[in-house]
Design a protein that fits this description.
Layout lengths: L17 H7 L13 H5 L3 H22 L1 H32 L5 H53 L3 H4 L2 H44 L3 H45 L4 H6 L3 H53 L5 H47 L15 E9 L11 E9 L3 E6 L5 H8 L7 E6 L2 E2 L5 H6 L1 E4 L10 H6 L9 H11 L2 H6 L20 H15 L3 E5 L7 H16 L3 E5 L11 E6 L2 E6 L1 H5 L8 H12 L23
Parallel strand pairs: 3-8, 3-9, 6-7, 7-8
Antiparallel strand pairs: 1-2, 1-4, 4-5, 9-10
The chain binds adenosine-5'-triphosphate.
The site of adenosine-5'-triphosphate has 14 residues, from helix 12.
Length: 668
């Protein structure tokens, strides 16, 4: 396919605004080029939109059929009926005109025109009834079609790998696809209008063809300029949308921050409001500039089209005048022809306009389909090997992993090898950024190793059934989610596939030490934990953490992963938690504990120390603290730094209550 050149008026200004530069580190506008969306753009010409029309109608019909078959039947019946009644009405008016302009007395001519006038009146009435039916049917269909389309892309998106969700290109597709769901809804309306306008066009064109076939090309010539104008405007709008889609999301992000309950305290204390408002205005003004540019171009295109349409209309009426002047056409036929030309050209204009809108919307629905295709390619694979029922160990063999991202070359895991014996407490420690959380994400199957293997006994997790793998694991991550739902759902969502079980909820809350504060909430278990909603309530950071723990317990995975479980807990809650973890491990549960509080890993059966994505030390608490004089002792170094902050001799004095200050302070 040949590449089309972009005219200067086709592209937006690409200089990033000061706000884009400052807040987002560079331009948020996409340089589309012509390669990526070339097909969609190049097809935006008259011939292609007419040739693709049946396909468009079929696609819309398919969506509508899926959404509500009966409503679709009603709309189709009403629209086809309306078209037929319009055609019959136009023919009846023509008949009546022919009688009225014909020979004989006025009374005779009126009497002869009477039946035709009655038919015209009847069809007008029928048309009104059918229009009402069609409006009712479309009203039912539109929201359902939007729901079906939205569900389709949401369902696809929910199943993709985490890596896809973090990819900005995929996100851009998501943005336009979410617009596509609204487009699908509008498509129903335009499709209905197109069918209707086509019906009246055929009626008018039929009458003109009977009167004089010469009149048909004139009709087309009068309409072509406005068709061209509508298409040009639509193409620019579509391109502009794609260039600016991330920019508008960023603008919305700033406006949402201004009203967000999470950001509200800092906005007030640090007086961030005017700063955000300034950048919101600057971002909006950049977009207003784009809208002005589009409006200017649309006005210019409209003016040129109106000029050509005027010339074509003058030529058509001059030809008609010539035919009447030379007597080649009777006066009554001329009157009917003028009526039919007016009806026909307005129908044709309408058809072109509606098809154009329909086509424009269909490009966004196309984006929705593209998203579904892309999501299908990036879906979490289904099926695979079964994991051993009671594995004895999980082994990382020389695992290398680098996060995807432009220019990111740093390995988060750089040949990590370690063993996690099941039924034990295994601790992962190391400085910030040493790779602990990444290792856990790979264990959960959220990412796949670039090289190396993760084995459950002898089964490679990469080939295992992913749904089985995640069913074995329960996680309280550092960034566990605070679901904006009720307290019981916040725990029960650990097992979303089964209905809430109050007994089990209470056991999970008791395990996490959360039962007392849940019972004290204004509506107990049914308290909504979302500020800014009616009856919404908020929890402290530590209480949220306990809920997160309860959720992981409710899930009852074979492997329980707790990443920084005590960061927001007071000393008593922390001690309780470690007692609980010990009890679980004694009952055969595997616990993987990530913490910076080195004193609290005393209870672990095995400790792995990570540094720069590698496991550099492994052993028990005592092993790692002992000084056998061999090599560097990272754990011992970190522990001494923490203990020194307490004024203790770290190597000899054990930490009371398993509590020691955070290793963050001892970051190397
Ligand atoms: N989503 C991500 N995209 C790109 N890089 C990431 C991402 N998450 C982590 N990293 C990088 O990977 C490396 C390891 O990070 P990781 O979160 O695993 O460390 P950690 O040991 O858990 O740190 P902390 O103790 O601070 O939680 C770091 O260099 C970090 O910047």
């Amino acid at each position: 396919m040949t590449k089309r050149k972009q005219g200067p008026e086709e592209t937006a200004a690409t200089e990033p605004s000061e706000s884009e530069q400052l807040l987002f580190g560079g331009p948020l506008r996409y340089d589309l080029g012509w390669n990526k969306h070339e097909d969609a753009f190049l097809q935006l010409n008259l011939r292609s939109i007419f040739t693709r029309l049946p396909h468009l109608i079929a696609t819309t019909g398919h969506l509508a059929w899926e959404a509500d078959k009966n409503a679709l039947r009603l709309v189709a019946f009403a629209e086809i009926g309306r078209g037929i009644s319009q055609a019959v009405g136009l023919i009846a008016v023509n008949r009546a005109l022919a009688h009225i302009l014909g020979e004989g007395t006025t009374t005779d001519r009126l009497a002869q025109a009477g039946p035709a006038l009655l038919v015209a009146g009847g069809t007008a009435f029928l048309g009104a009834v059918l229009r009402a039916l069609s409006t009712a049917g479309t009203g039912q269909l539109e929201p359902k079609v939007e729901r079906v389309a939205t569900e389709r892309y949401l369902a696809h998106t929910a199943k993709v790998e985490l890596e896809a969700v973090e990819d900005d290109e995929f996100h851009k597709l998501l943005d336009s696809a979410s617009y596509g769901a609204g487009s699908a809804r509008r498509l129903v309306k335009y499709c209905q209008n197109v069918i209707n306008a086509l019906m009246s066009l055929f009626a008018a064109a039929g009458v003109l063809a009977i009167l004089d076939p010469l009149l048909l090309p004139m009709l087309v010539a009068m309409t072509l300029p406005s068709a061209w104008a509508a298409l040009s405007v639509a193409r620019r709008r579509y391109m502009s949308f794609h260039v600016w889609v991330q920019h508008s999301r960023a603008g919305q992000l700033i406006s949402r921050l201004l009203i967000s309950t999470d950001a509200a305290p800092e906005i007030r204390v640090h007086n961030v409001g005017p700063f955000l408002l300034h950048h919101f205005r600057a971002m909006s003004q950049s977009q207003e500039g784009e809208q002005e540019r589009l409006a200017r171009l649309a006005a210019r295109t409209g003016l040129i089209a109106a000029g050509w349409s005027g010339i074509a209309a003058a030529a058509a009426y001059a030809t008609l005048g010539g035919l009447l002047w030379t007597g080649a056409m009777a006066l009554s036929v001329g009157g009917t022809a003028i009526l039919a030309i007016r009806t026909g050209s307005s129908s044709l204009n309408n058809v072109v306009l509606q098809i154009n809108w329909m086509y424009e919307e269909s490009m966004f629905v196309g984006d929705l389909h593209r998203l579904c295709e892309e999501a299908a390619k990036r879906t979490i694979p289904v099926g695979g090997l079964s994991l051993p029922k009671e594995p004895t160990q999980i082994t990382f063999e020389d695992v290398v992993f680098t996060y995807q991202g432009k220019g990111n070359k740093k390995r988060a895991l750089n040949g990590a090898s370690l063993t996690i014996p099941t039924g034990k407490i295994v601790a992962l420690v190391g400085a910030n950024g040493s790779g602990k959380s990444t290792l856990i994400k790979l264990l959960c199957g959220l990412y796949q190793p670039d090289s190396g293997r993760i084995l459950w006994d002898d089964t490679d997790a990469a080939a295992a059934d992913r749904s089985e793998l995640v069913s074995r694991i329960a996680v309280v991550g550092q960034d566990f989610y605070r679901w904006p739902f009720t307290a019981d759902v916040n725990i029960g969502i650990g097992r979303p596939e089964v209905p809430l079980d109050q007994k089990r909820l209470e056991a999970a809350a008791q395990y996490a030490g959360a039962e007392s504060f849940i019972e004290e909430l204004p509506r107990g278990w049914k308290t909504l934990l979302a500020r800014g909603y009616k009856g919404g309530h908020n929890l402290s950071g530590g209480q949220w953490q306990l809920l997160g723990l309860g959720r992981a317990h409710y899930r009852k995975g074979q492997v329980l992963i707790v990443d920084e479980p005590t960061s927001a807990l007071d000393a008593k809650a922390e001690q309780q938690l470690f007692d609980q973890i010990r009890t679980l491990a004694d009952a055969g549960q595997t616990v993987i504990l990530i913490t910076h509080r080195l004193g609290s890993v005393r209870a672990a059966d095995l400790i792995h120390v990570l540094d720069q994505g590698e496991v550099v030390e492994t052993g028990t608490f005592e092993d790692l603290l002992s000084d056998d004089g061999q090599g560097r002792k990272l754990f011992r170094e970190l522990y001494r730094i923490q203990a020194a902050q307490y004024g203790l001799d770290g190597a000899t004095l054990p930490c009371q209550n398993g509590q020691a200050p955070s290793a963050n302070s001892g970051k190397r």
